[in-house]
Design a protein that fits this description.
Length: 132
């Protein structure tokens, strides 16, 4: 089975809330809440993929030094194996906007588990809450 590398980030605001994005209708796993990010292209680093995705999806600018490694997911989906490093980021430039029709929500740590997430993400939440 193919292993797909996806870079994801927990953006954390000044109040310690985390940004979740709801997958739009029509996509696989529509309606579930996930961390911003996306597939790492061939020849790209995970950090470069995040800088690109955060610009495209949210309209914000970030740098490699913005990203601190937090934890990772290694999860077998039916059709691929997901390897997903999760970074934390508290610094960016610009205002977060939903540029791709996604719904965005700033979520306090205590409410994270109330948001239905892809299977791969569920084990990441305790690690994230410990870190916040
Ligand atoms: N960005 C992100 N992707 C996640 C998370 N959890 C998780 O299982 N994924 C999966 O990782 C892949 C991310 O790929 P992507 O965002 O570039 O692609 P996509 O499915 O939106 O579009 P595409 O596959 O049609 O290009 C998807 O299969 C997505 O379901 C998460 O927290 N954040």
């Amino acid at each position: 089975m193919k292993t797909v590398l996806v870079a994801a980030v927990a953006l954390i605001d000044r109040d310690g809330r985390v940004l979740l994005a709801q997958r739009p209708p029509g996509k696989q796993m529509a309606g579930l809440w996930e961390f911003p990010g996306g597939k790492v292209e061939p020849g790209e680093t995970p950090e470069a993929a995040l800088i690109r995705e955060l610009h495209e999806e949210l309209g914000i600018e970030t740098w490699r030094s913005c990203f601190a490694p937090l934890t990772f997911a290694s999860h077998a989906y039916a059709d691929f194996h997901l390897l997903m490093p999760l970074f934390a980021c508290r610094k960016w430039e610009g205002i977060v906007q939903p540029r791709e029709g996604q719904t965005l929500r700033w979520v306090p740590p205590s409410e994270l588990s109330a948001y239905p997430m892809p299977d791969a993400d569920v084990p990441l939440i305790p690690a994230l809450r410990l870190w916040l």
